[in-house]
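tmp note - 5-deoxy-glucuronate isomerase
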Amino acid sequence: MGAGAAAARRARAGGGPRAAVPARRRRGRRRGRRRVAAAHRAGRVRTDDAHLPWGGTGRVPWALEVTPERAGWRYAGLRVLTLPPGGTVTFDTGGEEMLVLPLAGACAVHCDGVRFALAGRPSVFAAVTDFAYLPRDATVTVEGEGRFALPSTPATRRLSPRYGAARDVPVELRGAGPASRQVNNFCAPDAFDCDRLVAVEVLTPGGNWSSYPPHKHEEDRRHDDGTAEAELEEIYYFEVAGGAPGDPAGPVGYQRVYGGDRPIDVLAEVRTGDVVLVPYGYHGPSMAAPGYDLYYLNVLAGPGPTRTMACVDDPRHGWIRGSWADQPVDPRLPMAGPTTREA
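out:
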């Protein structure tokens, strides 16, 4: 095997070998990282800073790679791995804990001498999936076919590698009426143990809004009304029903992020494979266009000692929650349940 092929099969999650990239494109990536970090520091994040289209952040072996450095923050990360039939990739987790979450396809995960067979799913809209937890300081091999998300964050504790069964994922129907959505709480704080990492999936029927009312989690504090808020960075990874990663003509959804105490102004048109970064500010709604169901994976992490998703609503729109009592949940929900193929 040549040196290039060997490098493509093995990569360090926090660094590792890079693919050969033209100098102009490398300079563009560096400028992009500096621009995002500078925008966060200056407190003037715009759509071009926070919206990362598919294809703009890849690095062998990852089709998509968002590290804390790339995002201009400290904790939340996400990679997406695309494997052809019979594909195999080996990498080191370094100082990060990670998950392997099938988006489309199935795989086997080898870590610390343990093998997990992930039954996966045909697509994010077809089923709730099983997944695997990877500890820090581990060498991991993933073999199979499909597209796989790997949420990550720096970890202080080294936990054991573990398997998460689809049948054990708490599925929540949240909201009502046109704000109805499905939340798969596979790695929520009360559902699955990690050191710092939190991740959930949200499915929004076409024409509905989710991540609504808009809310924020940018500081650790208890508000005057007793509501707790945590400091959390958040990544939104999107897929739109009928779309394919990298298709510029594919169906779209929309994501809004706007300022609370710090200015941020984002309105992103998203397609399958796109990412929106939320360093701070109110985020929502996530808008599914009529006729096109919307999926997003939320990855959250922050400096607090306790895993949490504590947030506060935009006080101008929090009243929306009270209106749900008189509305039925959208009958199209639930959209997906546990796969029947899991091991």
